[in-house]
Amino acid sequence: MTMKAALAFAVAPALALLAAPSFAAGSWKLEFDNRDLPSLSYRDQGKVTFMLGCGRALGLHARYPGEAGRAGKATITIGNGRKSIKLAGEFEEISADDDATNFVQWDLGYSRQDPELFGKRWKRAQARLLGLMERASPLTISSRTTSYQLPRIDAAGWRAAIERCGGLGAVK
């Protein structure tokens, strides 16, 4: 083996690692509370960095990519490499020791008084978000200045559980 071939053989795996998307070393989990309401979360090093859960509202919590404010309006974009959705929400204080989320959006941006909340348009928006998340490998969370990636969602049954959201909690 020539010196060039040996060097190429040794360097190629390292370059492949650099080209591969970097993921947090966490895991996806689908859980149900005592009322059988679902939440899908991604935990990294014991902290929730992304969570989508439902009950009387559909709540999306995420670690804001970049420098987060303490309060006020905020926007993130969730993408799967082909499509993306911009979500307007707000900053929230990190509240628990196991929580690293500081962005929240409720009910896909619909107000509680909106007659369309949980209606046909809302269900289409929900299906669009869940479809984007389902096909993401990786799932990219970005702001204007930076982004991070989460691996493909591998929690069995997560989409069907979250699709049952709609104002009164999970339907059995």
Structure description:
- The protein is 23% helix and 31% strand.
- The chain is of the alpha+beta class and 172 residues long.
- The protein has a nine-stranded antiparallel β-sheet with strand order 1-2-3-4-7-6-5-8-9.
- The radius of gyration is 19 Å and the shape is globular.
- It starts with a helix and ends in a 9-residue tail after the last helix.
- Mean pLDDT is 84; it is low at 3-23 and 168-172.
Feature tags:
172 residues, alpha+beta, nine-stranded antiparallel beta sheet, 23% helix, 31% strand, globular, disordered N terminus, disordered C terminus
Straight-line distance between termini: 65 Å
State the strand order across the main sheet.
1-2-3-4-7-6-5-8-9
Number of strands: 9
Q: In terms of structural class, how would the helical and strand content be classed?
A: alpha+beta
Mean pLDDT: 84
Sketch the major β-sheet: 9 strands, antiparallel
Low-pLDDT sequence parts: 3-23, 168-172
What's a concise summary of this model?
With 172 residues, the protein is α+β, with helices and mostly antiparallel strands. Helices cover 23% and strands 31% of the residues. β8 and β9 form a beta hairpin.
Layout of SSEs?
Elements: H1 3-19, E1 27-32, E2 38-44, E3 47-54, E4 58-62, E5 73-79, E6 84-91, E7 103-106, H2 120-135, E8 139-142, E9 147-150, H3 158-163
